[in-house]
Amino acid sequence: MDRLTGMSTFVEVVNAGGFAAAAQRLGVSRAQVSKAVMRLEAHLGTRLLNRTTRRISLTETGRVYYERCRDILEEIDEIERIAGEQSDRPRGRLTVSAPTSFGILHLQKLIPEYITAYPEVQVSLSLSDRFVDVVAEGFDLAIRIGELEDSSLIARRIAPSRRVFCASPEYLARQGTPKVPQDLAIHACLIYANDLKPDTWTLHGPRGTESVKVNGPVCADNGDILRASALAGLGVTLLPTFIVGPDLASGRLQQVLHAYCPADISIHAVYPSRRYLSAKVRTFVEFLVGRFGNETDRDQFIKAS
């Protein structure tokens, strides 16, 4: 027996003053109401109601049980009301995981704007370049950049993210400039560890799709480390323009292999479920989509070949 249903039926019988009136209020038959109360009494092992042909009355135990049930059901109603308000209005703590570089370069500027728009939300931001387990680690959502692994998570595309091959002028003057993808095999390459295949770079160009095995002095799970290594003249790297864009514009880094490009990647927000999505998650994702959209300012740093 569903005890909650039995409790609510019992309380309704007492409030209505009888089985027939309770059945009418509940929209069920009198027999169903009577059976529900009888099952509740059988479960408790005690009589809750004295019944006559004309009226009902509470037993001593029934009176105590009625008062407690009424309080419990009122508390449940209040909890459901609060939960409903939570789903309708953005409020509470929003836990977000994001890649370190993206968080520092972009989210730190946007979070104050979001909180100003939704002052009842408190954002808890965790920056890490590892792929967190959103469900197991209790995050409301995570920002992912790159190819998405198969997952039961819901993914919402926030913006495109273009990547380029680049190196410092000093490195290129010393080691030469790669002209075709296979040249990368003899260059020092600075590798992003979190790619699905870190030691294989795939390029699309005049001869179609080509893949080349790469290696080099630095392999890191953070783009800023690779950027710093490239600026120090340690090798060629493959990074999003939202990280190296200003360096390309200033000439501190130079794009190479202009005729070839890696597969474009996207920035996604991932979260556990579309069903019953909370207002704080929904509004944060929509906020990011609105700020980034399909057109971003990151590609302004790409020089034409």
TrEMBL record:
Family listed: Belongs to the LysR transcriptional regulatory family.
Gene3D superfamilies: 3.40.190.290, Winged helix-like DNA-binding domain superfamily/Winged helix DNA-binding domain (1.10.10.10)
Protein name, entry field: Carbonate dehydratase
Pfam families per record: HTH_1, LysR_substrate
Keyword annotations of the record: DNA-binding, Lyase, Transcription, Transcription regulation
InterPro entries, alphabetized: LysR-type_TF_proteobact-type, LysR_HTH_N, LysR_subst-bd, WH-like_DNA-bd_sf, WH_DNA-bd_sf
Domain HTH lysR-type: 1-59
PROSITE patterns: HTH_LYSR
GO molecular function term, any single one: DNA binding
CDD domains tied to this protein: PBP2_CrgA_like
